[in-house]
Amino acid sequence: MDRPNVILNAGMTLDGKISTIGGDSKISCEEDLKRVHELRAKVDAVMVGIGTVISDNPILTVRRAKGRNPIRIVVDSLGKTPSDAKILDGSAQSIVAVTTRASEKEKNRLQDKGAEVLVLGDEKVDLTQLLEHLRKRGVEKLLLEGGSTLNWSMLHQRLVDEIQIAVAPKIVGGKKAKTLVDGVGVRKIADGVHLEFQSSKIVGENLLLTYRVKGLTNDSENK
Ligand SMILES: NC(=O)c1ccc[n+]([C@@H]2O[C@H](COP(=O)([O-])OP(=O)(O)OC[C@H]3O[C@@H](n4cnc5c(N)ncnc54)[C@H](OP(=O)(O)O)[C@@H]3O)[C@@H](O)[C@H]2O)c1
After folding, report:
1. Is 42 a member of any domain?
2. What is the CATH number of the domain that holds 74?
3. What is the DSSP string of 1-63?
4. Ligand 1, atom 3: closest residue by C-alpha
């Protein structure tokens, strides 16, 4: 499958949460936010799930660094991205990937807001098709910025190549607080996603950990 190189990035507390029980996800320090903006400037597109748009309302542009804005992509089966979402503010190109379940009304509303609407899949957005489509139109590098549910789908379907996690020296607890990866999970460790440590670095007060995902078809170990 020809798809973009995918980097998953997240800010995470030491107890593995990417937001609190109250939905507060302002985990990273200023230095780390700058790193994320520099990363955005290096990729062609940045992608989030509809849960993140509703909860965080991110702009996903490059503001704390110099560089061009990536294409912003929302994975949103029913096309429920609110019309006043910052991701539709016109400051950069936006794509809303929906399914055949999205109504004509919602699709037209999103197009009227200037977004490109892609219909891929029936139940949930077909991520493989989405990535193939993006690659065909020139997206070589894609930054996945969450949240937990989309992270799970992307990892479980082996569509992530690299993981960058900024571990913040904070603990927030809460059984219902979102963790880095949610979804249904696997029963055996052997069935999980296996990673290879690449590097560690202090960024502000955070510890930036970088891993490579093992076992992908483009992985030299599998050739
Ligand atoms: N700290 C950080 O770095 C960081 C970054 C981002 C987000 N967050 C946090 O993460 C939380 C949001 O995570 P979330 O899990 O609720 O939502 P999410 O992962 O952002 O979005 C998940 C939603 O995307 C839609 N979707 C459509 N096709 C999909 C597919 N193939 N696979 C997976 N999802 C698909 C589904 O909704 P539909 O069926 O309605 O389409 C699904 O419920 C928020 O609390 C936010 O603050 C933290």
Report:
1. yes
2. 3.40.430.10
3. ----EEEEEEEEETTSBSS-TT-----S-HHHHHHHHHHHHHSSEEEEEHHHHHHH-------
4. 10
Question: Residue 218 domain-assigned?
Answer: no
Q: Is the CB of 77 under 6 A from ligand 1?
A: yes
Task: Give me the number of domains the chain comprises.
Answer: 1
Query: Does residue 167 have its Cβ closer than 6 Å to ligand 1?
Result: no
Q: Indicate the average pLDDT of the chain.
A: 96
**Angle at CA of residue 85, ends 83 and 88, nearest 5°:** 80
Residue 69 lies in a domain: yes
Q: Is 178 in the pocket of ligand 1 (CB under 6 A)?
A: yes
For residue 16, cis peptide bond before it (omega within 30 degrees of 0):
no
Domain housing 55? 3-211
**Cβ of 192 less than 6 Å from ligand 1:** no
pLDDT in tens, 23-35: 999 999 999 999 9
Q: Is 222 a member of any domain? A: no
Q: Which residue in the block uniquely carries the two structure tokens 């992985």?
A: 219
For residue 150, give the H/E element and its range.
helix 148-156
- By the 8 A CB rule, do 222 and 215 touch? yes
- List, for residues 55-100, the tens digit of each pLDDT value: 999 999 999 999 999 999 999 999 999 999 999 999 999 999 999 9
